[in-house]
């Protein structure tokens, strides 16, 4: 889903829970498809519900503030509510008008949705900078990542060792409560997660002293990850099982490492090719020569053919970037030739150049300070 969740709900980032709820109800009333038949209303309604789903829960809100949409459940797959999940017009009214009237709490019947089973942990994102050669050749990198790990004291249950959970007395283990709500539009039934047990149907009698009942602890872990040869800006690496630990011993999420490559003062990259420049004298360009040039592999010999023109591009084959996923295949190193023409020459050089010009029958402005050679010669 595109857009910032706070902007979608029209609230500031320090909004409190009550103001957030008021903003959500106002927008949900406005854009519910049973009320608003305009094009785009249904998609807007889904965005509003997804934003509220994330920001109304303190834990997911904190993760969103830290990592953005990539840090909250369902982000990778688009997440959020579907209109079909919200039921009809009466269902949204129980949300919008839940503040009206005084309902009587009761346990829900056979429509239990309690969530007392294992829950997969969240995926995490880490941005990692590489220098130019690290991206070309890959290698191992050590990183530190803060994430949630299962509490060893209670084995992730949240209960003090030797104790356990009991059935919630508010919802009788259903995980939901039903309220009858009177509104100007009639009476509606509101079904919501039980706030006593947070929808699990169970409550912990004695909380673990280490994790205080959460079942997980924030820890910073050191990891070694392998960077494959040929990665580039925006390459994403997946490290399985290194995200947050799941609740109630659920499987951990994954870690996604996004790579950003720093620029190099000598080399630039075009796909799997590398580019650089080398300057030669005008005599080396005319007569040709062999020079040592820098490559990502070290020094290499480069032959400058006689008569090389300015901005000629010479190629060192298989000295470029390894192809990602197939490091045996490499690109080329393309070297642009710059020719240095001197701004001053001495009298001996001038005499030799004038003789050469005479042999070639070219006018040089001999005997004056004008012309190319006259401009170069200064006593």
UniProtKB/TrEMBL annotation:
Zn(2+) 2 binds at residues 168, 171, 194, 197. The keyword Phosphoprotein does not apply. CXXCXGXG motif repeats lie at residues 151-158, 168-175, 194-201, 208-215. The keyword Chaperone applies. GO terms for cellular component: cytoplasm. This is Chaperone protein DnaJ. CDD domains: DnaJ, DnaJ_C, DnaJ_zf. It comes from Waterburya agarophytonicola KI4.
């Amino acid at each position: 889903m595109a857009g910032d969740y706070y902007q979608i709900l029209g609230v500031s980032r320090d909004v409190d829970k009550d103001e957030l709820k008021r903003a959500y109800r106002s927008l949900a009333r406005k854009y519910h498809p049973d009320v608003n038949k305009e094009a785009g209303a249904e998609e807007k309604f889904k965005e509003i519900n997804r934003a509220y789903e994330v920001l109304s829960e303190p834990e997911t809100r904190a993760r969103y503030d830290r990592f953005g949409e990539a840090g909250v459940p369902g982000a990778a797959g688009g997440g959020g509510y579907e209109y079909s999940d919200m039921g009809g017009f009466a269902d949204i009214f129980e949300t919008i008008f839940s503040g009206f009237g005084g309902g009587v709490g009761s346990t829900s019947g056979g429509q239990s949705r309690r969530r007392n089973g294992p829950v997969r942990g969240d995926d995490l994102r880490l941005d990692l900078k590489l220098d130019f050669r690290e991206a070309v050749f890959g290698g191992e990198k050590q990183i530190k990542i803060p994430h949630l790990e299962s509490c060893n004291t209670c084995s992730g249950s949240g209960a003090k060792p030797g104790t356990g959970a009991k059935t919630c007395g508010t919802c009788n283990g259903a995980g939901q409560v039903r309220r009858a709500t009177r509104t100007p539009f009639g009476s509606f039934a509101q079904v919501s997660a039980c706030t006593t047990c947070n929808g699990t149907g169970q409550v912990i009698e004695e909380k673990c002293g280490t994790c205080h009942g959460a079942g997980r602890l924030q820890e910073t872990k050191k990891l070694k990850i392998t960077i494959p040869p040929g990665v580039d800006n925006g390459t994403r690496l997946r490290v399985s099982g290194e995200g947050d630990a799941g609740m109630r011993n659920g499987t951990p999420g994954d870690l996604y490492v996004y790579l950003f490559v720093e620029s190099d003062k000598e080399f630039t990259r075009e796909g799997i090719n590398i580019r650089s420049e080398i300057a030669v004298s005008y005599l080396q360009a005319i007569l040709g020569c062999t020079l040592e040039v820098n490559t990502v592999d070290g020094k290499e010999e480069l032959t400058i053919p006689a008569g090389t023109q300015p901005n000629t591009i010479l190629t060192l084959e298989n000295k470029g970037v390894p192809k990602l996923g197939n490091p045996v295949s490499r690109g080329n190193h393309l070297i642009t030739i710059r020719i240095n023409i001197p701004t001053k020459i001495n009298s001996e050089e001038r005499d030799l150049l004038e003789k050469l010009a005479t042999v070639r029958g070219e006018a040089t402005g001999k005997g004056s300070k004008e012309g190319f050679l006259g401009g170069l010669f200064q006593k």
